[in-house]
Amino acid sequence: MTKKIEAIIREEALDAVKDALRAIGIVGMNVFEVRGHGRQGGIELSWRGTTYQMDLIPKMQVNIVLSDHNVEKAIETICNAARTGNTGDGIIFVYPVEDVIRIRTGERGREALSYPDDIDARRTPA
Ligand SMILES: Nc1ncnc2c1ncn2[C@@H]1O[C@H](COP(=O)(O)OP(=O)(O)OP(=O)(O)O)[C@@H](O)[C@H]1O
Ligand SMILES: [Mg+2]
What we know:
The chain is α+β, with helices and mostly antiparallel strands and 126 residues long. The chain has 4 helices and 6 strands. The protein has a single domain (2-122), classed as 2-Layer Sandwich (Alpha-Beta Plaits), CATH 3.30.70. It is elongated and about 60 Å long.
């Protein structure tokens, strides 16, 4: 089974998350700039005695499609790299993925997701 991890993290955490994922052998990913809010519904900013509500806060969204036996390790890695302990550290969603097709080769599914030296290639058979 293939899964998609959608991790919404602080912009400042992106480099640390990317490096940590790379270090465990997560190769393919893409990143979006997003704006949103979680439980607090935004933050209050003040400027010269006036307060403003900023309800949609910029975050980075990191998308990773991977085999489901790598999902827990990827989640743990993202959490460790992105956590400050303060509100706004982010949230991770996990979805099932129906199929993957590499356009150039026509490879599908697991084949389309294997890269040289990725987390699966590094795995030593049990
Ligand atoms: N239910 C949701 N659906 C879609 N996107 C969401 C949802 N909840 C949060 N997000 C997105 O995830 C980001 C993470 O928000 P945030 O870190 O503030 O989460 P939280 O649930 O409020 O936790 P915390 O208490 O740590 O702040 C939001 O800015 C928003 O972009
Ligand atoms: Mg929040």
